[in-house]
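[STRUCTURE TOKENS]
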Amino acid sequence: MPATVKYFTKGNNPTSTIYIRFSHGRKFDFKKSTTLSIESKYWNNSKGIVRSVAEFGDKLNFENTLNGLRAYLINKFNTDYSNGTVIDAQWLSLAINKHFNQSDEHDFNFLTDYAQHFIDSLPYRVQRNGTTGLAMSTIRKYKSTLQKIHDFEKHTGKRLKTNNIDLKFHNDFIKFMSNNQQLNLNTIGKYIKCLKTILKNAKQFGLKVHPEVEFDGFRSTKEKTYFVTLNQDEIETIFNLDLSDSPYLENARNWLIIGVWTGARVSDLLNFTSDNINNGFIEYQAQKTKQKIMLPVHWQVQSIIEGNNGQFPRKISNQRYNDWIKEISKKAGIVQLCKGAIYLVDPDKKGKKIKTPQRKVLGNYPKWKLVSTHTARRSFATNHYGKLPTPIIMSVTGHTTEKMLLAYIGKTPQDNAILLKDFWAMENIKGKKEIQLEIVKTAN
């Protein structure tokens, strides 16, 4: 069935705007305004054509205009569809504008147009600390959020305006990302958070934003995150593991050891070079936060560098690092069952991940399966927490508040209470020893 273009008007006004319905089978069916208008007495809405009325002297030109638009849209559809272009309501709107040589300037009342403007300005935005621009990882989050909005608009067949974003949208958007795109609630929550920031900025820009965005119910989603860390015995086992028969695993193991003793994000970790070492310290600027971080070189890290002719290990991709450290942990015998979430793999499809509504499936798995790119950084923070002053740990991990650090390593008020209890117990023992020593001294 070929694509079809039909024209229609709405209402019974003396002058009406002509709308277009573009359809092709069940997959494509979009309606948009042509911005053309006609006196209703000259229009046959049941047939979607100009009436044959003698007094309408511009009939021929008007018909040619509509026929020209019809032919243009059908030809453009055939070309764009065969080239893999996304055909949606936005495609139809842009095609109409292009045919009539209308301005393609953005209308910031539309959410996607303003969101794109917001994203374009991020590299030049001055932060509270005076620095200019946001980290690329942060910009990518906003770009992903914009893509999710585009996906939702394609799903609903409607373009959203900033004042359309209400609690109903909030519910529908979450449902769409959960059911249709199979995202977990924490990932969805990050998109909602970015969306709220865009809308807050739009309001400051002077655009009309729906008041329900400020309601308590318009909040980010989240669920409990399970993660594993490597304790010092496990780190020692991995460090001493003989991987000489697998150079790629040995290289990845060395990065893992450096990660657990630097607490660096993987985006910084895998970019370390000898230039980052200065007088026994590792110095670098975090890509995400632009913070200057400095820490001493741990003896295991020093051993790895010295064994590699004074260089850091060979650079690898994040994905290979993530995959190989699991294999390394398995070889190290880190197999105790731990609670966590992983992608299930279909054994009949050569390791292809099984799609599930939650993407990752919660359960009890061997610990090596749960090791990931975040494990090294979390291990550093967890292994040093309670042994070093928290500000020192934060200076290495780059967390700006203690609350952020504690959330990252999963510490609760109960954990802090236990630390305080242990501290008091040690102080009590210490005090008793001092009393006994004083008594012995008096007796002599």
The first helix runs from residue 59 to 82.
